[in-house]
Amino acid sequence: MRALLALLVVAVVVPARPAIVSKPIPFGARRQAETARYAARHYGLQTWRLEHPRVIVEHYTASDSFSSAWNTFARDSPDAELHELPGTCAHFVIGRDGTIYQLVALNTICRHTVGLNWTAIGIEHVGTSDASVLRNPRQISASLKLTLWLMHRFAISLPNVIGHNESLTSRYHRERFAPWRCQTHGDWVHADMQVYRARLAALARSEHVTLLRTGAPVPTTC
Ligand SMILES: [Zn+2]
């Protein structure tokens, strides 16, 4: 009985929702249609809607300001690297001062990680390296709180909180367009994400939040 009570107590502990500033980018019918076409081409899905996110992908912007990231994502022009529409975006951008901005609704597919956009929430950090984010107490603290809250809200497990550079070993990675199958980026490498996940687990412990641990990475043939 005592064990059951303990379980019930653990189950009702909910991580606090951090303060989030709404700064939506334009995402009207045209961008929705471009996103649905992207989802059909790359994932075989006919929708712009993010139905059931299973993965959170951490990124950094390789720039120094929130406004430059916002402008890039708002533009909806073909990206410089892969030349496709819709333009790239992220659901959240975290500034150097720790402010969390939300740019895109969580029921909407955002184009931030090849192979995972169909099921991943994207979090960008203003900065030029993993280390620049890990070293910034306000920014990393905001990032961990946001990620923990999203994990709880969508029942996302700790191994499914990944860095962009870990995308190819996600069990949810899929890409129908062969030339993109091994495409990834250099932001948030495994060693830095091990630090990030350890800090996330420590935050969960301090808030008495139970983390799901299922879903280990899978080998890649890339
Ligand atoms: Zn990235």
Briefly characterize the structure.
With 222 residues, the chain is an alpha/beta fold.
Describe the structure.
With 222 residues, the protein is an alpha/beta fold. The chain has a single domain, classed as Lysozyme-like, CATH 3.40.80. The chain is built from six helices and six strands, in the order αβαβαβββααβα. The radius of gyration is 17 Å and the shape is globular. The mean pLDDT is 94. Bound molecules: zinc ion.
Please give the largest β-sheet. 6 strands, mixed
Supply the number of helical segments. 6
CA-based gyration radius: 17 Å
H-E order? HEHEHEEEHHEH
The helix fraction, in percent, is: 25-40%
Q: Any idea what the shape is?
A: globular
Measured distance between first and last alpha carbons: 50 Å
Structural topology:
Blueprint: H1 2-11, E1 21-22, H2 29-43, E2 55-60, H3 66-74, E3 92-94, E4 100-102, E5 120-125, H4 130-134, H5 137-154, E6 161-163, H6 190-206
Parallel strand pairs: 1-4, 2-5, 2-6, 3-5
Antiparallel strand pairs: 3-4
The chain binds zinc ion.
List keywords for this structure.
single chain; 222 residues; alpha/beta; Lysozyme-like; 6-stranded mixed β-sheet; 33% helix; globular; binds zinc ion
